[in-house]
Amino acid sequence: MAPEDAAIAHLRAAGFSGPYALAIVTGTGLGALVEAVADRVSLDYAAIPGFPAPGVSGHGGRLHRGRLSGRPVLVFEGRTHAYETGNAAAMRVPLATAQGLGAARLLLTNAAGSLRPEIGPGRLVMLADHINLSGLNPLIGEPSDARFVPMTEAYDPGLRAHLSAAAEAIGLSLPTGVYAWFSGPSFETPAEVRMAGILGADLVGMSTVPETILARFLGMPVAAISVATNLAAGIAGGDPHHAETKAVAARAGADLARLAAGFVGRLPEP
Fold this sequence. Notes:
The chain has 270 residues and is of the alpha/beta class. The protein has seven helices and nine strands, in the order H-E-E-E-E-H-H-E-E-H-E-H-E-H-E-H. Residues 22-264 form the Nucleoside phosphorylase domain.
């Protein structure tokens, strides 16, 4: 039996049967997106077999089902990070569960540090690609040849087009960027940020990349949005800290909720 099978059976019994147009993972301080979901049914991660318990403030640790723009959605309020246990595959069971319940695609959100002063705190950025600087991969130890996941279009072009159209419809500027994954939990040094910029990164953060790899392994198309909660260390005086990350992310939650609603409204019915 796969580790996610018990979670799928438990959730079906609790009324979480799909299909779903979209599964969403919320990042630090972005739980307000949940409030936009109508007809919510919720469960604590702790009540779901095999689900990890988030240990970071700003991550609610609850799974929600409901409707966004009339489409059925599954929302993971918070994630477990690789830095909490050293396990880059910490979100494998939740994502495999989403797929098993019939989630057709995945939207990841995160709080990130910006390397571009013109993309200051509170701005949303659509990810076009990523750089894995962590030295970790969630598929290490996977025995099948499925572990050799193509990542040329890790962030699905069709979903990105829908996000751009949704942003334009609500008058929201949505630049694209490349996200560099550092393992954390300490913030990046100014020298590390300079290195990331030389390599082509626009944003730095401590999540999202392992979930993107896992979702592509599972066959789920992925889109991702970063909330720039601060300027990265050494960028125009940037000196990030976790309280700032949570506060700015919370203020950006309304824009993210509007964007997510417009995005899911453009997706096909599951």
